[in-house]
Amino acid sequence: MKSINNNAPVKCSKTILVNAGAEEVWQVLTAINDWHAWQTEISDPRLEGAIQEKTSFKWQTGGVTIRSVLHTVVPFQYFGWTGKTFGLFAIHNWTLKEADGITEVRVDESMEGFLASVFKKSFNTNLEKGMRTWLELLKARCEK
Known about the structure:
Number of helices: 3
Strand order of the largest sheet: 1-7-6-5-4-3-2
Order of helices and strands: EHEEEEEEHH
Number of strands: 7
Distance between the termini: 30 Å
Low-confidence stretches: none
Strand content: 35-45%
Helix content: 25-40%
Largest sheet: 7 strands, antiparallel
Protein backbone atom coordinates (compact mmCIF):
# COMPACT_ATOMS: atom_id res chain seq x y z
CA MET A 1 0.00 0.00 0.00
CA LYS A 2 1.19 3.50 -0.81
CA SER A 3 1.87 5.24 2.52
CA ILE A 4 0.47 8.63 3.36
CA ASN A 5 3.01 11.45 3.53
CA ASN A 6 3.77 11.82 7.24
CA ASN A 7 5.58 15.10 6.49
CA ALA A 8 2.54 16.64 4.77
CA PRO A 9 1.10 19.77 6.42
CA VAL A 10 -2.34 18.12 6.61
CA LYS A 11 -2.82 14.56 7.82
CA CYS A 12 -5.21 12.53 9.93
CA SER A 13 -5.93 8.96 10.99
CA LYS A 14 -9.18 7.64 12.48
CA THR A 15 -10.53 4.23 13.46
CA ILE A 16 -14.01 2.83 14.13
CA LEU A 17 -15.42 -0.61 14.93
CA VAL A 18 -18.20 -1.81 12.62
CA ASN A 19 -20.54 -4.63 13.63
CA ALA A 20 -20.23 -6.30 10.22
CA GLY A 21 -17.75 -8.54 8.45
CA ALA A 22 -14.90 -7.15 6.37
CA GLU A 23 -16.52 -8.48 3.18
CA GLU A 24 -19.67 -6.43 3.82
CA VAL A 25 -17.69 -3.29 4.71
CA TRP A 26 -15.58 -3.81 1.58
CA GLN A 27 -18.68 -4.07 -0.63
CA VAL A 28 -20.02 -0.73 0.65
CA LEU A 29 -16.66 1.03 0.58
CA THR A 30 -15.68 -0.07 -2.93
CA ALA A 31 -19.07 0.63 -4.57
CA ILE A 32 -17.81 4.09 -5.54
CA ASN A 33 -20.75 4.88 -7.85
CA ASP A 34 -23.08 4.40 -4.85
CA TRP A 35 -21.17 6.54 -2.32
CA HIS A 36 -23.65 9.39 -2.64
CA ALA A 37 -26.46 7.06 -1.41
CA TRP A 38 -24.98 6.94 2.10
CA GLN A 39 -22.10 9.42 2.25
CA THR A 40 -24.00 12.70 2.55
CA GLU A 41 -20.96 14.88 1.80
CA ILE A 42 -20.29 13.26 -1.60
CA SER A 43 -22.07 13.81 -4.89
CA ASP A 44 -21.66 12.62 -8.46
CA PRO A 45 -19.12 9.80 -7.92
CA ARG A 46 -18.08 8.14 -11.20
CA LEU A 47 -15.79 5.14 -11.39
CA GLU A 48 -14.09 4.97 -14.80
CA GLY A 49 -13.46 1.21 -14.96
CA ALA A 50 -13.14 -1.78 -12.65
CA ILE A 51 -12.11 -1.75 -8.99
CA GLN A 52 -8.42 -2.32 -9.60
CA GLU A 53 -5.16 -0.42 -9.25
CA LYS A 54 -4.74 2.50 -11.70
CA THR A 55 -8.50 2.88 -12.29
CA SER A 56 -9.56 6.51 -11.98
CA PHE A 57 -12.73 8.05 -10.62
CA LYS A 58 -14.20 11.51 -10.15
CA TRP A 59 -16.33 12.71 -7.28
CA GLN A 60 -17.44 15.91 -5.60
CA THR A 61 -17.28 16.95 -1.99
CA GLY A 62 -17.88 20.44 -0.65
CA GLY A 63 -18.64 21.58 -4.20
CA VAL A 64 -15.12 20.64 -5.36
CA THR A 65 -14.48 17.99 -8.02
CA ILE A 66 -11.69 15.57 -7.12
CA ARG A 67 -9.89 13.35 -9.64
CA SER A 68 -8.65 10.17 -7.99
CA VAL A 69 -6.72 7.06 -8.99
CA LEU A 70 -6.83 3.77 -7.08
CA HIS A 71 -3.37 2.75 -5.89
CA THR A 72 -4.22 -0.25 -3.68
CA VAL A 73 -6.98 -2.84 -4.02
CA VAL A 74 -6.58 -5.88 -1.76
CA PRO A 75 -10.09 -7.31 -1.21
CA PHE A 76 -11.39 -7.18 2.36
CA GLN A 77 -8.12 -5.64 3.65
CA TYR A 78 -6.73 -2.55 1.90
CA PHE A 79 -8.26 0.10 -0.35
CA GLY A 80 -6.53 3.34 -1.28
CA TRP A 81 -6.34 6.15 -3.77
CA THR A 82 -4.63 9.41 -4.57
CA GLY A 83 -6.59 12.53 -5.34
CA LYS A 84 -5.90 15.89 -6.98
CA THR A 85 -7.79 19.16 -7.08
CA PHE A 86 -6.83 22.85 -7.25
CA GLY A 87 -3.14 22.34 -6.48
CA LEU A 88 -3.80 19.85 -3.68
CA PHE A 89 -2.58 16.26 -3.66
CA ALA A 90 -3.95 13.69 -1.22
CA ILE A 91 -3.23 10.07 -0.37
CA HIS A 92 -6.19 8.25 1.19
CA ASN A 93 -6.00 4.72 2.63
CA TRP A 94 -8.50 2.34 4.21
CA THR A 95 -7.47 -0.70 6.26
CA LEU A 96 -9.98 -3.40 7.31
CA LYS A 97 -9.24 -5.96 10.05
CA GLU A 98 -11.99 -8.42 10.99
CA ALA A 99 -12.22 -10.41 14.21
CA ASP A 100 -15.31 -12.37 15.28
CA GLY A 101 -17.59 -10.62 12.78
CA ILE A 102 -16.54 -7.11 13.85
CA THR A 103 -14.37 -5.06 11.52
CA GLU A 104 -11.92 -2.42 12.64
CA VAL A 105 -11.91 0.23 9.92
CA ARG A 106 -8.96 2.60 9.82
CA VAL A 107 -8.64 5.54 7.49
CA ASP A 108 -5.46 7.56 6.93
CA GLU A 109 -5.01 10.62 4.74
CA SER A 110 -2.32 13.15 3.97
CA MET A 111 -2.79 16.32 1.96
CA GLU A 112 -0.13 18.57 0.53
CA GLY A 113 0.22 21.49 -1.84
CA PHE A 114 0.12 25.27 -1.65
CA LEU A 115 -3.38 25.57 -0.15
CA ALA A 116 -2.70 22.83 2.40
CA SER A 117 0.39 24.73 3.57
CA VAL A 118 -1.30 28.13 3.73
CA PHE A 119 -4.51 26.90 5.40
CA LYS A 120 -2.91 24.10 7.44
CA LYS A 121 -4.94 24.63 10.63
CA SER A 122 -8.39 24.83 9.00
CA PHE A 123 -7.61 22.00 6.56
CA ASN A 124 -6.53 19.73 9.44
CA THR A 125 -9.71 20.59 11.38
CA ASN A 126 -11.91 19.96 8.33
CA LEU A 127 -10.12 16.72 7.42
CA GLU A 128 -10.56 15.33 10.93
CA LYS A 129 -14.26 16.26 10.95
CA GLY A 130 -14.78 14.80 7.47
CA MET A 131 -13.05 11.52 8.31
CA ARG A 132 -15.09 11.12 11.49
CA THR A 133 -18.31 11.73 9.52
CA TRP A 134 -17.27 9.30 6.77
CA LEU A 135 -16.54 6.55 9.32
CA GLU A 136 -19.82 7.11 11.17
CA LEU A 137 -21.81 7.03 7.93
CA LEU A 138 -19.98 3.88 6.78
CA LYS A 139 -20.70 2.20 10.12
CA ALA A 140 -24.40 3.16 9.92
CA ARG A 141 -24.67 1.85 6.35
CA CYS A 142 -22.94 -1.46 7.12
CA GLU A 143 -24.94 -2.07 10.30
CA LYS A 144 -28.35 -1.47 8.63
